[in-house]
Amino acid sequence: MNLNATLFAQFVVFILLAIFTAKVVWPPLMKALDERAQKIADGLAAADRSKQEMVAVERHVQIELSKAREETQRRLNEAESNANRLADEIKTSAENQAAQIIAQAKAEAEAEALRIREKLRNDVASLAVKGAEQILKREVDASAHEAILKRLADEL
C-alpha cells in the first residue's frame, strides 16, 4: 500500500469523524455543558439570595428578640410597680385596721371604766348608807333620801 493513499484515507476519515462529531456529538455535549453551567450559576445565585435572606432574617430575629426583651423588661417593671403599689395598699389598709381596732379598744376600755366607776359609786353610796345606818342605829330609806344619795354619788 501506498503511504500517501493511507495518509489521505486517514485524513478523509478524520475529517468525516470531525464533521460527524461537530454535527451529531458536539451539540448535545455542549448543550449538556451549558445546562450544567446554567444550573451551577442558578445554584450560586440561589445561594447568594439565601445568604441575603438569611442576613435579613437574622436582622429580623434580632429586632424581634430586642422587642421581646424590652416587652419582658416592661412587664417586669409593671409587675414590680404593681406589687409595690399593692404592698403599699395592704400596708395602709392594715394600718387603718390597726388604728380602728385600737380606737375601738380604747372606746371599750373607756366605756368599761365608766361602767366600773358608776358601779363603784353605787357601791360606795350603798356602803355610805349602811355606814350611816349603823351610825344612826336606825334604818335609812334609800328612796326617801334619793336626792341626797345622788348628790353624794356625784361628789364621789
Automatic annotation (TrEMBL):
Q: Which key words tag this protein in UniProt?
A: ATP synthesis, Cell membrane, CF(0), Coiled coil, Hydrogen ion transport, Ion transport, Membrane, Transmembrane, Transmembrane helix, Transport
Cellular component GO terms, alphabetically?
endomembrane system; plasma membrane; proton-transporting ATP synthase complex
Subcellular localization(s) per the UniProt record: Cell membrane; Endomembrane system
Q: How does it assemble?
A: F-type ATPases have 2 components, F(1) - the catalytic core - and F(0) - the membrane proton channel. F(1) has five subunits: alpha(3), beta(3), gamma(1), delta(1), epsilon(1). F(0) has four main subunits: a(1), b(2) and c(10-14). The alpha and beta chains form an alternating ring which encloses part of the gamma chain. F(1) is attached to F(0) by a central stalk formed by the gamma and epsilon chains, while a peripheral stalk is formed by the delta and b chains.
Membrane topology term:
Single-pass membrane protein
Know the name of this protein? ATP synthase subunit b
The similarity annotation says: Belongs to the ATPase B chain family.
Name of a matching Pfam family:
ATP-synt_B
| Primary role | F(1)F(0) ATP synthase produces ATP from ADP in the presence of a proton or sodium gradient. F-type ATPases consist of two structural domains, F(1) containing the extramembraneous catalytic core and F(0) containing the membrane proton channel, linked together by a central stalk and a peripheral stalk. During catalysis, ATP synthesis in the catalytic domain of F(1) is coupled via a rotary mechanism of the central stalk subunits to proton translocation.
What is an example of a GO molecular function annotated in this UniProt entry?
A: proton-transporting ATPase activity, rotational mechanism
Q: What HAMAP family would the database entry show?
A: ATP_synth_b_bprime (MF_01398)
In terms of PANTHER family, this protein maps to:
ATP SYNTHASE SUBUNIT B, ATP SYNTHASE SUBUNIT B', CHLOROPLASTIC
Task: Point out the gene that encodes the protein.
Answer: atpF
Give TM regions: 6-26
Coiled-coil ranges (or none): 62-122
- The domain of life is Bacteria
Gene3D superfamilies assigned:
6.10.250.1580
